[in-house]
Amino acid sequence: MTQRAIVLRLALLDVTPRVWRRLRVPEAIALDQLHAVFQRAMGWSDSHEHEFVIHGTRYDSRPSPGREAGVRVLPERGRPLWGALGASRSFDYLYDFGDGWQHLVVVESIDLLAEGEEAGVQLIDGGGACPPEDVGGPPGYAGFLAAIASPAHPEHRAMLDWVGGAFDPAAFDAAAIARALADPGEAAGGGGRGQPA
Predict the structure, then answer these.
(1) DSSP letter at 74?
(2) Which domains does the chain have, with CATH numbers?
(3) Reported pTM
(4) Which of 1, 57, 115, 161 is 20 to 30 A from 134 via CA?
(5) Cβ contact 59:73 at 8 Å
């Protein structure tokens, strides 16, 4: 049987500079595994709830019918991406319902694998640093960037201390992300936060 890999472009919406990753994943990857890949690729810490919205259906780790009346919510665990996609070539990934980090995921290509080729997870390209956790979503992130950019800002020193001393919003450490993706035991958070090691 011929195996295929899916090339996805994962982009964080409503932030400047742009934060995005291009990833190659096996077509049979389950949504719970894809969530772990997205966390490592972006640099999130996986400390908040999340969900996928694919073709009008919501998938998450703890489906709760009370969140929105009339919305179908299914468990993500063990559900293959390819089966959930159907004819869709884009879907949404929401991380942290409080901060509301909305990601658009676009299927860029579906590649046939050569005989014997493994369909592992691979970072192809990307850009931008993942915002700090709990910064307040896109509006909070914009305020954070304004504060750290101006020494005259009243919160300049407090924000730099909070983030660990430095933050480069344009930082993108492809090698660190590739290592995180290759090691399933490694915690998320290697997505190029722009902080000193």
Answers:
(1) E
(2) 4-129+170-182 (3.10.290.30)
(3) 0.88
(4) 57
(5) yes
